[in-house]
């Protein structure tokens, strides 16, 4: 049985307090345990990170970049090893795990360009003989708290940029699949990152609260469900920290009557059931603008017949859900949908998986004729459940999407450029796909939603990530020139 330990000061950092069980979701068996940090453990690790900041903040851009390049090479060379670790604890199929590693690598590559990304501005002669320039400096110790569904990619949205910008980091990954984070920390150390710059503490609410309250922690990047995101934002900002807290989602895919319905059906199935729907950018609602609904539902259902649900280490399309509790919760939503009168075109509870019967299985479910008051529509289910809502017009579709409390991602399927342009202008959502169902921005753009999908005003990675992890100074300088001497009590102005 494996035991996952914290990683601090450049090495594994075991504790003998509380711990949690780890599961293999495809077999339902306990596969090991993970140490849980107490508040005093968190304090000790934050102090290790604070000591490391004293020197890392002064490391040259060249040095920081060299470490980042070396880290990129290690992760790239070992991407299959990392993907396998993710599949063992999360359950997603190997190809999907490899995809998340790839998206994480892209942020590491962006962080390799930190000399350009962190560059300030310079204005010569703002006044006679006076220059002005802006610099951005690291914050200090920053905390990252991540969810179970992307155990490598979400930490990599934040950690490379925070570290490259000169901060030191304490990451608290999900206690459900913590091994990927610890592996990344070990590889960062191998890449030459000084001890204590990147640390991982494992645990639950106790560790999170200790990070939120710790006076040395300057900033918190959180990703998880909306209630916890709101809590983290409120508690963290009350403690005087800079906080970005990314929350849950309910992503709509609008299909207009002129859309290519084969493309739309492929997209709905891929985006609805990839990673068993456990993605914050999964499509969970298809908004079919009539008269396309009958044909679209038929096309989606026929594609679903080909989805093989099973052990992610075999050649299956969709793995198990992450825990038995979560599987039961999602199955409960399927039952509630049937009870509320939605038409279960495909019922995932009937699945025969290619895997151990004790795994946390649930097949893909398709509901038609879902209405906005049903819980399958209102709630973030975070499982393989796709709902079709039928509307009569484009206007009705936009009104539906904009009435949703979440605003993470959305997609529109159409061949009408004008309609797509109007949608991107009118819809109140942070990330929009046009004939693209999962519009996750590239590393050099920033990731983030609107409304209950994000608390705080800064999105993840790209320029906003660099901004979040640095603070600005503006310097106004004059080099001595005796001819400009003399007292002047007036407010400085240009001259
Ligand atoms: P979660 O909110 O249960 O947990 C997220 C993190 O918070 C974990 O590290 C967990 O240990 C910690 N945590 C849980 N409960 C806590 C509490 N009461 N107090 C303090 N800390 C707590 O989320 P999850 O189930 O791990 O992940 C799935 C959720 O994350 C979904 O809602 C999904 O939409 C969301 N998510 C959002 C994005 C995004 O970019 N917006 C990306 C990925 C996942």
Quick overview:
With 495 residues, this protein is an alpha/beta fold. The chain contains 16 helices and 23 strands. The chain binds nicotinamide-adenine-dinucleotide (NAD).
The gross shape turns out to be globular
Query: Per CATH, which architecture of the largest domain?
Result: 3-Layer(aba) Sandwich
The structure class reads alpha/beta
Poorly predicted segments: none
Give the distance, in angstroms, between the N- and C-terminal Cα atoms: 73 Å
Spatial strand arrangement across the major sheet: 15-16-17-14-13-19-20
Which value, in Å, is the CA radius of gyration?
Answer: 25 Å
Query: If helices are DSSP runs of H or I spanning 4 or more residues, what is the number of helices?
Result: 16
Strand runs, count: 23
Which CATH class of the largest domain is shown? Alpha Beta
> Going by CATH, what is the homologous superfamily of the largest domain?
Aldehyde Dehydrogenase, Chain A, domain 1
The average pLDDT score comes to: 97
Give the distinct bound molecules.
Answer: nicotinamide-adenine-dinucleotide
The main pleated sheet reads as: 7 strands, mixed
As a percent range, the share of helical residues equals 25-40%
